[in-house]
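Journal club prep, notes for RB
We'll compare a predicted complex against what the paper describes. Inputs for the manganese (II) ion case:
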Amino acid sequence: MGVRLSHRCAAVSDIGLRRMLNQDAYLLNAVLGFFAVADGMGGPPGGDVASRLAVTSLCDYMTEHPGLPADDSLRGGFRKAQQVILGEAERMPELREMGTTLVAARIAVNEISVAHIGDSRAYLFREGKLLPLTEDHSVVNDGIRMGMLSREAARLDPRRHILTRALGSDAPAEPSLAHAVMEPGDRLLLCTDGLTGMIDDSVIAGCLSRREPPIDCCRRLVEAALDAGGSDNITVVLVDSGS
Ligand code: MN
């Protein structure tokens, strides 16, 4: 039934130009068609621990439950990530305030399921256009949605890093889910705010439309964010459809 697309994928994570630590993490599992990016929260210690626990717990869950429908496996993986992070926070009091975003995609045949918490994003790039698959769980995005803040103002708003949902925090840990069909030529991008906070969607679309192999494209995106100031850690995962 159907044709299994082979997914060509790559990831690049860069510390950026201003941070002492890379608190982003990512996961590629081309065999299971499973991809994730996490951005550990700065401020309280342990952001790097939280982001790594998030992607590894999610991966463990997906690997242990290979037969589940995509949405169930994503929801279960997020729940497990939350449990593991909270458990570790309890064990290590100095990490009790650690938290992280998480965006994950599962691709089965050509069906993409995306789950996310926080402001790490997923986009589908199709025919030159960048289609967002996620909506940031952030204070400024709530402001944009309510018409109280423009996108330009949000970019400079001092509250731009404040999340309304995160893993590991008291905030709700329920992921938002989205779905899309991956058509030949489509590219799926997962990224942290170190990319989207530095360069516009139009610049991202410009990089993706060059049709380079995923690894070159990932490097080009990271370069663009560094050229724009690189004030945060930058992580990108890019998955190409088979043909
Ligand atoms: Mn970040």
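Talking point for the session: Helices lie at 47-64, 70-91, 139-145, 151-156, 193-196, 201-208, 214-227.
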